[in-house]
Amino acid sequence: MRAQVVKKSKTQWSNQCVICLSKQVDGAHIYPAGSFPKLADVKYNIVPLCREHHQEFDELNWHRKINWLQELTCKPAEMRQWLLALQMIKVNEYKGDKE
Length: 99
Description:
Layout: H1 2-12, E1 26-29, E2 46-49, H2 51-58, H3 62-72, H4 76-93
Antiparallel strand pairs: 1-2
């Protein structure tokens, strides 16, 4: 299941890193799968990042990840919509997860 979700997320962003537009990307979780298991397979929780940006991204806590994405993404309007959709999903459907 997760592989399909990652593929959909990558396709949404033209299989490019949302920061540098590299075509060599991994799926990175905004809210970590270990802390937010119900969000692990949600498309809006996964963004494509190149290895360099994925490593940088994973060093941030999830609060800072959201700010980092909003500030650095190559498509800020689309990323704001993506993050808003994720926030609505988290609030409405997954509010029981620990933060």
